Amino acid sequence: MKSVIGTYGDRSEAERALDALKNGGFNDREISLVAKGEYSEGDGENAGEESMGMSSGAITGGAIGGVAGLLAGAGLLAIPGIGPLVAMGPLAATLGGAATGGIAGGLIDAGIPEDRGQYYENEVRSGRFLVMVQSGEDRIEDAAGILRKTGAKDVEVH
Fold first, then answer.
1. Residue 51 contacts residue 76 (beta carbons within 8 Å)
2. How large a percentage of the chain has pLDDT more than 70?
3. DSSP state, 9?
4. DSSP label at 44?
5. How far apart (Å, rounded) are the C-alpha atoms in residues 73 and 111?
6. Which of 9, 32, 34, 94 has the largest CB neighbor count within 10 A?
7. How many angstroms separate the CA atoms of 102 and 111, rounded?
8. What is the domain extent for residue 99?
9. 114 C-beta neighbours (distance < 10 Å), count
């Protein structure tokens, strides 16, 4: 299993990447998204969606392809020293168990070197959207190409 990772400057870029990955044959168990989230008490079960500025109407009516399904699975995590995060996919489960390691700890668990994990954690802290795909070696270059084509910054394969 290999990982490819990259960051996007805004939600619409990240959504386009998720859609392109789904259209490229990648599934929910391979694709992860992490973004900084802000929410208030009472946001309820859609806290993750709301924290990324998405209304339920945009999710059901405006999203294309598999993006709505992916984002519907997004959850809100509180990571000490970072604050609230919106996370989906396999990385969300890793982050949920890595409360003390933060994003970098979760990325290290996913095979990303420590220095690069810290770099990507800082990118999320600064407001960027992190997209990661974990797949077999035969498909990882396809995923890297999709991330590059959709405008990801700092695309790396590990």
1. yes
2. 67
3. S
4. G
5. 23
6. 34
7. 15
8. 2-157
9. 11
Looking at residue 23, its amino acid is: N
Integer angstrom CA distances of residue 123 from 69, 99, 118, 126: 25, 18, 9, 5
Cα 97 to Cα 69, 79, 147, distances in angstroms = 23, 10, 27
Query: How far are the Cα atoms of 39, 61, 106, 148 from residue 18, in angstroms, in the given order?
Result: 23, 16, 20, 12
**How do 75-79 and 153-157 pair as beta strands?**
unpaired
Instruction: Report which residue type is found at 129.
Output: F
The single residue listed with the structure tokens 């974990």 is 134
Q: How many residues does the chain have?
A: 158
CA distance 95 to 140: 22
- pLDDT, tens digit, 9 for 90 and up, residues 13-45: 999 999 999 999 999 899 999 998 754 333 334
Q: Which residues of 10-46 are buried (b: 16+ CB within 10 A; e: fewer)?
A: ebebbbbbbbbbbeeebebebbbbbbbbebeeebeeb
List, for residues 107-147, the tens digit of each pLDDT value: 888 889 999 999 999 999 999 999 999 999 999 999 999 99
Number of domains in the chain: 1
